[in-house]
Amino acid sequence: MTNKICNLFDIQYPIIQAGMVWCSGWELASAVSNAGGLGLIGSGSMYPEVLRTHIQKCKNATNKPFGVNVPLLYPDIDKHMKIIIEEGVKIVFTSAGNPKTWTKHLQDHGVKVVHVVSNVKFARKSAEAGVDAVVAEGFEAGGHNGREETTTFCLIPMVREAIELPLIAAGGVGSGRAMLGAMALGADGVQIGTRFAASMESSGHDNFKNLIVNSNEGDTELVMKNLTPVRLLKNSFYSQVKEAELKGATKEALIKILGKGRAKKGMFEGNLDDGELEIGQISAQIKEIKPAGEILNEIWREYVNTKEALCNSTI
Predict the structure, then answer these.
(1) Residue 259: left (phi > 0), alpha (psi -120 to 50), or beta?
(2) Which of 30, 135, 150, 161 is the most exposed, fewest CB within 10 Å of its CB?
(3) 120-155 tens-digit pLDDT
C-alpha cells in the first residue's frame, strides 16, 4: 500500500509494535516484523550486552526491518547507541528525553529516528530536531506517560496540525477500528503496546499476561505524576503509591517506595502483588493471548473491513 510509514520503514502494514520494557524482546519484535509490521526491541530493561544479544537474535529470526526503542532517561544510553550502530540497526525510536541529543548522530550513521511525545510542544521540538517521524501518545497508554493527560483522540489532530512529518498514533489503539479512527484523525500509522504485551511471544511473565486478559474497565490508573507519570494495573504496590500520594508524599518518598527492579518483579518475574505492572487502558478489551502475527493480521483485516463498511454506508 502507499503509505508514509510503510515507505519510511519499508514495511507492509503501518503497524508498529511498541518497545515495552520486559515485554519486547527479540522474539516479539521478529514475530511482528515477519508478519509485515515493524517490531521494536525494548532496550529500557536491558544491559548493553543483553541488547546486543537481542539484536543479533532478531537479525537471525527475520530478514524484515526491525528497530530498537531507547528511553533516554535510562543509564548507559551511549553504550546502547554504540551497539545499535555497530550491529547495523536502521530504525530507532527514542522517548523520555531530548530528541536533539542523539538524532543527528544516529542519522549520520544511516539510522532513521522517531521520537515519542505526549504533547504538541514536544512534537514541534522533535520536528526541529530533525527526526524522521513522531509518535504522539495519548495518556490511555501504559507505562511512562504525559503529565497533561491528553487523550489520543484529542492529541492526534492537534499534532497533525502542528507538524508535517509522518505521524504515528499511540495510546488506546488495540484493534482495527481504533486504528481507522486514528488514521481518520490524521495519523499515518499506529503504535500498539498493550495488545502485543499479551501475545505468546511477549517476554512478559504468564502471570502478567493472564492478569491483562482478566482486567476490566477502571483497573488501571496514571500515578506518580510528581515523579514520572506511569499507568499501572492496580495491585498492592499501586495502593501503596496511591496512599502515599494522597498523603502528599515527596519525590524522595516516592522514589524510596518505588525502589529498584519493581517493573522487572511484576512484569517479568510475575509478582502481581509487589511488582510494578505497566499496561494501558485498552487492556480491558483484551480477552485472549494469541501469537503476535495473528494479532497483527486481525488488526489489519478489521481495519480494512471497517473502512470498506464505512465507505459503503448510506449514512
Answers:
(1) left
(2) 161
(3) 999 999 999 999 999 999 999 998 888 889 999 999
